[in-house]
Amino acid sequence: MLNCGLEVLRLASLGCGREENWFESLIFPGTVSSLALLHYPLRPCATPQAAMDGDTPLCCQDHADSVLVTLLDTFQYPGLQIWREDGQWMEVPVRPNSLVMNIGQTLSAISGGRFKATRHRVRDILVDRFSAAFFLEPKYDGDITVRMFGTEGEDNRLQSEEEVIKHYGPWLIDKMRNKPEYRDFVALEFSTV
What we know:
Blueprint: H1 2-15, H2 24-27, E1 34-40, E2 52-53, E3 56-63, E4 69-73, E5 80-83, E6 89-91, E7 100-103, H3 105-110, E8 120-123, E9 129-136, H4 168-177
Antiparallel strand pairs: 1-9, 2-3, 3-8, 4-7, 4-9, 5-6, 5-8
Pfam family, one: 2OG-FeII_Oxy
Protein name: Fe2OG dioxygenase domain-containing protein
InterPro entries: IPNS-like_FE2OG_OXY, IPNS-like_sf, Iron_ascorbate_oxido_reductase, Oxoglu/Fe-dep_dioxygenase_dom
């Protein structure tokens, strides 16, 4: 999955008129990329109101990943939906032997919005649902203020509530602290190399 993600970034770099290895110094050495094996179990009781969006039961709320690129194997389970520009949710078609690719917030910011972060959610399909997600991420101290085009602009930076954060790891931790499911997250002090 790492090689597949790197190939996507290589092609994105070339397509944007950059050197094919433009992203490598942001990712290596020491990428914090991860593989998540996801299980959305069948709920034993009625769907709680907090897991509803109108009439749609959800097992994963609306969000965009913080990463560069996410590669997802849905194991042919339906339920993944993406937000369209016309304000509607669209079901992602299930295709055998294929991966779904989502653009993350980091790639969106680095590209100045030319690549749009994929806003998505997972609809509860009322059966056990499994998927595997590979999150291609920069290294912990990767400089996320770099831009593919022009100079750093206020409109395309990754921001915390207080200020622009230069490195991916602290920015990611800041994002996690602000998510409801991580409210009790205890911040650890990490030194950047």
